[in-house]
Structure formats: structure tokens, C-alpha cells
Amino acid sequence: MVKAWFMPNTVTDPRDENQLNPPEPATLEQLSKIGVLYYYSEKRDGLDKIAKERGYDNNDEVVISKNTLPNYEDKVKAFFEEHLHTDEEIRYIADGYGYFDVRDGEDRWIRILSEPGDLLILPAGIYHRFAPRHDDYVHAVRMFRGLPKWEAHNRSEEADSLPERVQYTKEVLTQ
């Protein structure tokens, strides 16, 4: 089952849990309200059903580790910059652990621990970021509709005016 919690706005080390004191858990209902979908599939064959239902026709795999990702520290810093995408971000965690942080409707951070078997779908236009845990290892399957675009738009007035952000804000955050 997904583990998620609200976190402070300022973090010293992104690889730490960064829980509030006292901790404030976040629920699947709270994630759903901001458009974040969660599935669990112990075996990867469960991905085919989800891919078919949601129209994902392309996928690849990435291993985020010091041994496999060139310029690891720079890439991890870039992943942790608050940004959005104009497409959904779909990640199935095959192995390892990481944190996806998403903004809720009140602009608070929710941290989602992503473990093996977890599948997260972040909607287009949501501000988010990613960090591995201290073991610095995540093996993820990425799924797409068509070819991936991979363009991150860091939080800015320009990103706020993108059609996907405007639509996300109108359809999700104002509900």
C-alpha cells in the first residue's frame, strides 16, 4: 500500500524521509483529488492491463544509480528541481526506492515513497520532483502514449501559463 505524507517546504537532504513533526500522513483520496493515481502490481505482467486501459503504447526502463547513470549527482539534482511535464508521468518501480513529491491544492508538498510494485501516474501540469533514497538505486519502467517528450518545465510564470498547467489548475485544483 502506498505510503505518503506531508512534508516541510524546506529540506536539507532530499534523500531523507522529510516528515513533519508530528507526522501528517496523506491518503489515497488526497492524492486522487490532485489527479495522482496509484496502482500496485506485484508482477510486471499487471502493467499490460493498465497500459491497454490508459492507451500507453510505448515504454522503456531506466536504472537510476551511481553505477549506471552518467553524471549521477547532476541528474539527481535536476530531478529534484520542481517542474511539470506536458504529458502524464507514469512510473512503475521494478526495484529500489525513491520519493515523488507533488504539490497539493494548497501548494503543500506531499511525499510519496515509491517501492517495488508501485505504479504512479502524475497528471500533466502537476508540479513535482523526484529523489532516490540514500541507497541511490531505483529501477523504473516508464510508460508513454506515443514517443516520450521528456521536457521538464521548471516552476515559473512561463510554466504556469502552459496550456497543460492551466487545464490542470482549472480541472483539478479548483474542484
Automatic annotation (TrEMBL):
One of its GO terms (cellular component) is cytoplasm. It catalyses: 1,2-dihydroxy-5-(methylsulfanyl)pent-1-en-3-one + O2 = 3-(methylsulfanyl)propanoate + CO + formate + 2 H(+); 1,2-dihydroxy-5-(methylsulfanyl)pent-1-en-3-one + O2 = 4-methylsulfanyl-2-oxobutanoate + formate + 2 H(+). One of its GO terms (molecular function) is iron ion binding. Pathway: Amino-acid biosynthesis; L-methionine biosynthesis via salvage pathway; L-methionine from S-methyl-5-thio-alpha-D-ribose 1-phosphate: step 5/6. Its EC number is 1.13.11.54, 1.13.11.53. Ni(2+) binds at residues 83, 85, 89, 128. Fe(2+) binds at residues 83, 85, 89, 128. The keyword Nucleotide-binding does not apply. Residues 1-24 are annotated as: Disordered. GO terms for biological process: L-methionine salvage from methylthioadenosine. Its cofactor is Fe(2+); Ni(2+). Transmembrane segments: none annotated. It is found in: Cytoplasm; Nucleus. Keywords: Amino-acid biosynthesis, Cytoplasm, Dioxygenase, Iron, Metal-binding, Methionine biosynthesis, Nickel, Nucleus, Oxidoreductase. SUPFAM superfamilies: RmlC-like cupins (SSF51182). Binds either 1 Fe or Ni cation per monomer. Iron-binding promotes an acireductone dioxygenase reaction producing 2-keto-4-methylthiobutyrate, while nickel-binding promotes an acireductone dioxygenase reaction producing 3-(methylsulfanyl)propanoate. Its main location: cytoplasm. The keyword Ribonucleoprotein does not apply. Belongs to the acireductone dioxygenase (ARD) family. Catalyzes 2 different reactions between oxygen and the acireductone 1,2-dihydroxy-3-keto-5-methylthiopentene (DHK-MTPene) depending upon the metal bound in the active site. Fe-containing acireductone dioxygenase (Fe-ARD) produces formate and 2-keto-4-methylthiobutyrate (KMTB), the alpha-ketoacid precursor of methionine in the methionine recycle pathway. Ni-containing acireductone dioxygenase (Ni-ARD) produces methylthiopropionate, carbon monoxide and formate, and does not lie on the methionine recycle pathway. This is Acireductone dioxygenase.
